Amino acid sequence: MGMVKNIMDKIGIFLFSLLIVWSSTSVSQPLESSKIFVTPDSSMFRLSPDGKFVTTYSRGKNNHYINLISLETNEMLYSSAIGNDNRLLSYNWLNATQLYMKVRYKNRNVYLLGEIENNVIKLVHIKAYGYLVHTLPEQPNKVMFAKSKRRLWQYHDLFIIDINALAEDDFSNAHEIDHSLSEVNEYFFDDEFNRIIARKYDEEEETTTLLYAVLDEDDWQTIFKLDDVDYEFKYAGFISDQVVGVLTNKDTDKMVLREFDIKTQTLGKIIYQHPKYDLYSASFLENGQLEFVSYYQHGLAQILYFDKGKARYLERLRNTFENKEVYVIGRSDDKNIDLLYVNGSTEPGEYLVYRKKSDQISRLSVSYSELADQKFAQSELLTVTASDGTELEAFLTLPIGIDHKTLLVMPHGGPISVRESDRFNKEIQYYASRGFSVLRVNFRGSSGFGKAFQSRGVGEFGQLIEEDISAAVKLARQKYSFEKMCAMGASYGGYSSTMLAIKHPEKYQCVVGAFGVYDLPLLFNASNLRSGKEYEKYMSKTVGAYSEKLVDVSPVYLYKKLNTPILLIAGRDDDTADFEHTNRFSYLLKIKKHPVKTMFYRDTGHAHRNWWGHRHEAAITYEFLMETLQLELPKTEKLDDKGKLAVADDFAIIADGYAFDNTVDDDKNKAFEYYRKAAAYDHPRSNFNIGVYYHQGEIVDANVAEAVKYYRKSAKLDYASAYGRLGRMYMEGEYFQQDWDKAFENLAKAQELESTPVNNIRLARLHCMAPSPHRNIDRCLELMNLEQYERHSKSRLESAKKLIGEALTWIIADAELSDKEYARIKKFAIDVYEVKETRVTVENRREGHFEYVESEIFGRKSEYQTQVKGFKIKKSEKDEERFGLIFEVDVPGINNRQKQVAMGVRWSVTTPDGRKKYVDSYVLYGSPDGRWNALRGFGSVREDAIWALEIFDLDRNRIYQAHYELSL
Q1: Are 322 and 37 in contact (CB under 8 A)?
Q2: Which H or E run contains 808?
Q3: pLDDT for position 897
Q4: Number of structural domains the chain divides into
Q5: Among 421, 338, 345, which Cα is nearest to 376's?
Q6: Would 697 be classed as within a structural domain?
Q7: Do 747 and 731 form a contact (C-beta atoms < 8 A)?
Q8: Extended strands (E) in 180-255
């Protein structure tokens, strides 16, 4: 909820002024990838119908919230937490006091009714299953709802129902709207003409039909029916009883707005068309008059109002927010308050309120709170003339601050029906903040400029498209001086970047191709599914007709002509640009001993599934550019704290990939190398991680003194885990002499910086175990209370349970508590693990070295089989092998599944020089029936040592102790 802190950053602007800008005056620094490649921390702003409130959805570090803001005072009134595991998918104001919400909860959609009472949002689960069709503003307490049929969940019955009855799934007094339609995919309601609109899709015929009926008249008429056509046709609204407006490019080059006669099923006159651009939306008023049309011009959405008053208002907004998109996203019923959203190349998103009476705008909030004070690079429109005279739009973004005098030519994907915009672009700003200029081109084939322009790109792979890009490059280099140039892109952009370097080897010093297509014939025969006539017809709309000449424009067959270093990035599960494209290309380049680097992501398709992937790809690309072009990394003395963190974070995320991310192949040596690079820029977590390597003896020889040095450096940089690690070491007497004061100082600081389960519960352990003045049983139990984690997320709850097991084992084993004090701890443990019996014994023990063997017989369980009996064990390198204890549990009376039991387990290791370290502690719990185990893998065995295993019951009795002699 960091954004909420800035939500009242109110700035007054009078619209009669020509232009007022409130951009930051801070010096430009590299952008931290984790701040830019991220979901907005605040979104879904909605204005209440009476104009009194704005609701928002915000994503905080520890939770997700639905927020209620007063527009009278610009104050946050209430935040309702919905849990970090859950997502708000959509919501609407139903009236001045009620909200309808769709939430993703435990991998399913649930619907909530939000009731505003005394400035508080009360959430009620809606029991009815279906979806909201219309809010019916003329009937404030009712809605139109499509209720799912019990056995046909994809089909629905239509009702007008009281909102509170809907929440209770009580349709006894609801008004059912009679209609004879079946198998409707979706309903809409046109309140201007009082008509229900239905959309049906026929899978067999592959047709889409749009129908309508007047409310309460079961007389459905077809508006239009579409099959597989080579033109676009989109409903825009009713003009009169039998005429609708449609957006179409049938018989025209551009998408235009036309009349369509429902009775005759024929197109009528053109209502509006733009001479240069496709229309993408339009709206009509209740009298059938055209309200507005919209289109993209120079990379920004443009709305053209036909009412003079609205047109003047929009023009004033445009003058105030020059080179940005301005949307009215909410308007009060009395039309005195507008909620606005602004976006542009230098504006990642902000929300404002316009008050008509005062003719004043005030800022309400921003989309990305951590970017609020950042200065961004402005893009410049270039009008380019291609070799055949075709006019093109291109966008050039120059860096501010650092400038490597290097142009990154970045072709877009597609290449057909995709376009570049002048909106805020995370990738562009990332590279511009690091000193690179970026050029993007709406080459032929791009959408928004008409059918002819789009069709001119079909089959022009490696030909006219790249000539268009080269024309834009030529103009950019005429206007500005660049010393170096690289091409980079994804999908078709990866292909295009490679072809640009092949065709113009003297101009490009490097290439980055991500998720690219490099073998065009392979597009038509990659598999049986991709070799039929239907698929060939589909591909021909982009690549052109299949021909043997495709090899002449395929990088795989032109690899010997590539002279520049290249970074190839691919997803192993890519089924759009099959991984084989990149695999073949990289194989041939490596045979040629061409300078090629690769990053192949596992469990990744044609794009990354999460923001981590985007950050990692950006980081490895930045490093590749810097190394290949022999550019000097920013010096720490020229960077502020944010700038240093941004550069360091790139190295850290590369290290993370090699250290633990499942999509990147592990390489501990490379991870350590990159953590060192990040640490040189004062990266807190990387300093901590280097300390861990020295502590555990991974990659480097074990050296606790060196580890502590890095932990302390990390702590000085306010990294909570470093304080937590130092505090634990002081608490347990590891390396340091046990010191409860220093343990408390460090653990309290860790908990202050981050109130996470690990920091809370470690501090709880201290409060239960330390002598006075730090002994505090109340605080100990408060920090371990599970309710605070249940409200947050399932993952945090599970983490807390595990950590509580660690703390309880220590408390049971070593805490010098009075019987009264321990009784409270015991009761807490019984409640957490639902224990029925606390007196247990360990029986039928098997100690030794075990291997986990999967059963090959149906019905027989897989099990650990003994390799070596006893306590003298030699280290194994096999991942599936363990050492320790397998046993059974006995309780008073007869064992049964109802008797839940729990016991604490603790492992420690003592080296030949007498150093003792506690390596693990946890609680085992469950039914006493069956076999139990306390086993460890061999991964943490790095030297000859004695490993001690202790087991305690909840009555503080040590019920098992053994020492295992491990040798390398």
Answers
A1: no
A2: helix 794-814
A3: 64
A4: 3
A5: 345
A6: no
A7: yes
A8: 186-190, 195-202, 207-214, 221-226, 233-240, 243-248
Q: Which residues are 232's β-sheet partners? A: none
Distance CA 543, CA 528 (A): 19
Domain assignment present for 291: no
Burial class (CB in 10 A: 0-12, 13-18, 19+), 296: buried
Residue 317 — φ and ψ, nearest 5°?
-60, -45
- Residue pLDDT, tens place only, 335-362: 999 999 999 999 999 999 999 999 999 9
Q: Which region among 29-38, 525-534, 734-743 has the lowest average model confidence (pLDDT)? A: 525-534
pTM of the model: 0.90
Looking at the structure, tell me whether residues 345 and 460 fall in a common domain. Answer: no
Residues 206-231, mean pLDDT to the nearest whole number: 85
For residue 499, give the 3-state DSSP assignment: helix
How many CB atoms within 10 Å of residue 39? 11
Q: Taking 70 as the threshold, does the pLDDT of residue 206 lie above it? A: yes
Determine the pLDDT at residue 5.
33
3-state secondary structure (DSSP) of residue 46:
strand
Residue 561 CA, chain-centre distance (Å), reads: 39
**Pairing mode, strands 406-409 and 436-442:** parallel
Domain for residue 388, yes or no? yes
Phi then psi dihedrals of residue 367, to 5 deg: -75, -40
Contact 500, 492 (CB under 8 A): no
Q: pLDDT grade, residue 678 (50/70/90)?
A: very high
The letter for the amino acid at 31 is L
Q: Encode pLDDT of 139-174 as tens digits.
A: 889 999 999 886 556 678 889 999 999 999 999 999
Same domain flag for 367 and 451: no
End-to-end CA distance of the chain: 50
If asked whether residues 354 and 490 sit together in one domain, one would say no
For residue 457, the SS3 value is coil
Assess contact for 629 and 599: CB atoms under 8 A. Answer: no
- Percent of the chain topping pLDDT 70: 95
CATH number at residue 871: 2.60.40
Grouping H, G, I as helix, E, B as strand and the rest as coil, residue 138 is coil
